[in-house]
Amino acid sequence: MTEQQTIAVAMSGGVDSSTVAAMLRAEGHNLVGLTMQLWNQKRLAGKNGMTEEVTGRCCSLDDVYDARRVAEKLGIPYYVVNHERQFESDVVRPFVAEYLSGRTPIPCSLCNSHIKFADFLREAQQIGADKIATGHYARVEHDEERGRWLLKRPKDLAKDQTYFLFGLSQEMLARTLFPLGGMTKPEVRARAAEHGLALAQKPDSQEICFVPNGDYKQFLDSYLAEQGETLPDTAGELVASSGEVIGRHEGIHHFTVGQRKGLGVATGSPLYVIELRGDRKQVVVGGSDELYSRKMVVRKLNWIAVEEPAAAGEPMRVTVKIRNRHEPAAAVISPDGETVRVEFEQEQRAITPGQAAVFYDGDVVVGGGWIG
């Protein structure tokens, strides 16, 4: 990249986005640093045992301070933009609704599509930026033959974030830079040190930004209490895969497919959650072998590498990820109206409704959607 551009950098306060800013600044580009304030980390403190601890999560107040210090060091303008209201309506509320219905949501994909890219691009355009840059580990390039922008897996597959980016549109990809796509995490940390960034060894964020310590139940209880809403009664039957009722549970939102602990029943062999029937408030349990399946249906699709298929599109051979840490598995996908039927070559463990399914052709993201 030799042409000087005005670029808005999404600065999270972590080593990745900070290194992106330092690299682009060194290349001579005009930069503006923007941090999106999405959630008040102290908002639910004291409700139902919720603490103010913010360690290990992205978008904390400490992260804002770190981003500001990096901007000051680089000599670039820096702004914090408040998006709390939209984040709550587009990410938090759907997260709560999905959990209470017996599905296992993945809010980071919603946040990327609706907030971090759609809104960020609008703001960047308003300040005169040609493009935006983020610290995601992914690659974007234009395919002249297809006439489309492609989203591709990065060099460092251990840090691959394309699973969370499947919702990006062609317009978003055309205006987005992923400078870290060709680098490994150790190389990024080394580059941060070369640029004199004090946070070169700062640990990565691990938790969902609005759920402290990964305790979804505590968050749901605290959030609904704050909203003046009563936690819905989702208690019901614990059912064996044979149909036999073997106990009761206190709420369907306490469970996820594949879960073994906390079932409240003892048998001669381990039991796992194999299905959640939200409409009947039933948690279905069975043996480990019953967690495996070859088929699923994917809804609310976004296509990247190809045009949207016809209502009954031709089957495609791809690999499919059903969660972030899942190794893409060979499958045939068959577009069918507004859904895609997926059939894997080999059975996959714990296909979970509410999670994303992302389709790949080698390193190229074909598209993706939500497991039904």
From TrEMBL:
Annotated Gene Ontology cellular component terms: cytoplasm
GO BP annotations listed: tRNA wobble position uridine thiolation
E.C. number(s) listed in UniProt: 2.8.1.13
Protein's name according to its UniProt entry: tRNA-specific 2-thiouridylase MnmA
GO molecular function: ATP binding; tRNA binding; tRNA-uridine 2-sulfurtransferase activity
Protein species of origin: Candidatus Korobacter versatilis
Reactions that this protein is recorded to catalyse: S-sulfanyl-L-cysteinyl-[protein] + uridine(34) in tRNA + AH2 + ATP = 2-thiouridine(34) in tRNA + L-cysteinyl-[protein] + A + AMP + diphosphate + H(+)
Residues making up the signal peptide according to the UniProt record: none
Domain tRNA-specific 2-thiouridylase MnmA-like central: 230-286
Subcellular location: Cytoplasm
Superkingdom per UniProt: Bacteria
HAMAP family the record matches: tRNA_thiouridyl_MnmA (MF_00144)
Active site residues of this protein: 111, 209
Region annotated Interaction with tRNA, chain positions: 159-161
Marked site positions, Interaction with tRNA: 136, 355
Family: Belongs to the MnmA/TRMU family.
Function summary: Catalyzes the 2-thiolation of uridine at the wobble position (U34) of tRNA, leading to the formation of s(2)U34.
Pfam families, per database record: tRNA_Me_trans, tRNA_Me_trans_C, tRNA_Me_trans_M
Gene encoding the protein: mnmA
